Amino acid sequence: MTSAAERRARAGQPAAGSGPAAAAVSGARRAVPPAPPVWPGAPTPLGARFRVGPDGVAGTNFALWAAGAEAVRLCLFDERGRETQVPLTELTHEIWHGFVPGVMPGQRYGYRVDGRWDPWTGARWNPAKLLLDPYARAVDGEFRLPPEVYGHVRDWPEQHVADTVRDDRDSAPHVPKGVVVHDDDDWSDDRRPKTPWADSVIYELHVRGFTKLHPGIPEELRGTYAGLAHPAAVEHLTRLGVTAVELLPVHQFAHEDHLLRRGLKNYWGYNSIGYFAPHAAYAASGTQGAQVGEFKRMVRALHAAGIEVILDVVYNHTAEAGELGPTLSLKGIDNRGYYRLQHDARRYADYTGCGNTLHVVQPQVLRLITDSLRYWVTEMGVDGFRFDLAAALARSMHDVDMLSPFLAVIAQDPVLRRVKLIAEPWDVGSGGYQVGAFPPLWTEWNDRYRDTVRDFWRHALPDVREMGYRLSGSSDLYAWGGRRPYASVNFVTAHDGLTLRDLVSYGGKHNAANGEGNRDGTDDNRSWNCGAEGETDDERIRSLRRRQLRNLMTTLLLSTGVPMLVAGDELGRTQRGNNNAYCQDNEISWLDWSLLDDPSWRPLFDLTSRLIALRHRHPVLRRRAFFSGRAHSAAGLRDLAWFTPRGEEMTEGDWYAPAATLGMYLSGQDIPGRDERGAPVLDDSFLAVLHAGDRPTAFVLPGPPWAQRYEVVVDTSREEQSEAPGTLHPAGAAVTVPARSVLFLRAG
């Protein structure tokens, strides 16, 4: 039998104390300004666009796609929060539109969309909820999550049907509003760096966390776009030598209810709700449209320093979560049109672990994403994107499909195919792990590189086969379809996980501060604490940890592919063992700039900047083609050779034998391709010796024809690295490689 609650839910009966009568009483308390006239306007472009209309009258054109809606009302808010509702009566190709004379930049607005309430078929229209324009270019206000912002009665006694009971309370006082923005900036004075992929060094950072404690940035600018544009911030990036910053999400995002109830916030920002709007909380100049210009000035400042800007974007899901989540935007505009639903249309298909998944197969959803991407490139000046859980975007109806509409549209788009495209090549759904599978044009986060390098330096690999692939560009994953070594974004750490310092200081995660009983975050850290858990006064352990950091950083920056560093790893930043600091907007996540002046940690920064400079100087470290194992000139050697500690080239059996030492020879005389003038690319040759064993080992330096002598360039067993250690060794000599260290030698 059907329960009373289910019968009320099917009838759309509101909860007690809500409904039209309650809304009317609330509205009666506020004087409502008269509604302005509405002219037909145009269905394109979508969003709110200020322009000059008929007869030279200035105003704003509003256009909203809401396919199944029965009515759409534009809601304008004055400085006192009073609402004026303007019906949009023009409907063209499922787009509701109108031009409102006199609406100027700075105007705050939202929408109310009316239609059927029938959650069993996925219909969740509720005109009591003020909705954010998906195309809003700026957002004023902060998302809070009181019961009024939910389309259903959140506290309905029978929770198994709560999402089917409509809540008719007005949400407008509790939600942010879109802001009309006028932008006539043509970027004529901007010069994009256009750094080739092979020459790129990526630096992943958080706008707020990178700048919040920087002593050289004025206090009022810390934590903001203006702070990142400040010369003190830019100077650190240029001194380090990185070519691109990859910003953790800067699309407008909301905080999850479970965090707000614990007094926490979503710090990382992977909970987007406005794909065109710079996150307002990172603006020093205000939130009524000024954040747009501030973001652009930040991009210009970074470009002027030769640094590209890559955005970490979250188009796989939104902050509206599942059927029990809030109604903030898309859910109330056209739930069935925007989200993937299960066969039981009350429920959402969730390939993201966040409650919902955008239905990218739908043309209008695909349009929203590509319009947003093009906007950030053409009008906001960014140089590329890293796509969070990109496999979810590549799903057709259910399975991941590398011929999916999303990937096909990106491949042919004249704007997007020219920028840097990075996939996080997995999601949490069945078949979602797709490392190595994305088509040409795409690079990928290579977690196989991360895991292998971590395992090698904690001496957990059974042999060195996997390490050989990762050092040389991961040809086993990417040498197909015309892809190049720079298809692999190599990283040892990322925002998600332990910092580099914590990787050698903790054997397990320590996430108690997140309030989830240390259940959150991965248990597969592949870390080694060097003999003590956490911070210690034992100088022997501290010295070993610093050496391991030098080993990891050196390996990353000498490997073929595109290296990605995480902000603060070059300083020895710690999160105290927290490997999931997504909700820690505090000193756990913010960079501690005092480390730069700490004699224990300054050498790590110096080594990192020196390695990056070495990489920039030597094309043999920035290959544009995979190694062939053959000579590329009559007098040349093989472009890549591998050696055992005996100084002999490795045999098939050596690759399968237990080993902790690997020698890699890179021939600078055998680099394929030519430079811009058609001349051969020539460079020095180098030998890298990586030794993960806990005892020193002898390594015989390969003799002719590989080299006559070798000069030490980097020795990670040394706490301090001079400009060039310069020690010379004759070919054929047996050098002692200290325990757990890298020797990088120039062959001569």
Explain the overall architecture.
- The protein is an alpha/beta fold and 748 residues long.
- The strands form seven sheets. The protein has an eight-stranded parallel beta barrel with strand order 12-13-16-17-18-19-20-21. A six-stranded antiparallel beta sheet has the order 22-23-24-29-26-27, covered by helices on one side. Strands 4-3-7-11-10 form a five-stranded antiparallel beta sheet, with no helix packed on it.
- Strand 1 and strand 2 (58-65) form a beta hairpin.
- Helix 16 (539-558) runs parallel beside helix 17 (602-617).
- The longest helix has 20 residues, at 539-558.
- The model is unreliable at 1-29 (pLDDT under 50).
Provide the residue-averaged pLDDT. 93
The general outline is: elongated
Q: Count of helices?
A: 18
What oligomeric state do these chains adopt? single chain
Give me the count of strands. 29
The fraction of residues assigned to DSSP E strands is 15-25%
Bin the helical content.
Answer: 10-25%
Structure class: alpha/beta
Rg for CA atoms: 28 Å
Strand order of the largest sheet: 12-13-16-17-18-19-20-21
Distance between the termini: 87 Å
Uncertain segments are 1-29
Main sheet record: 8 strands, parallel, barrel
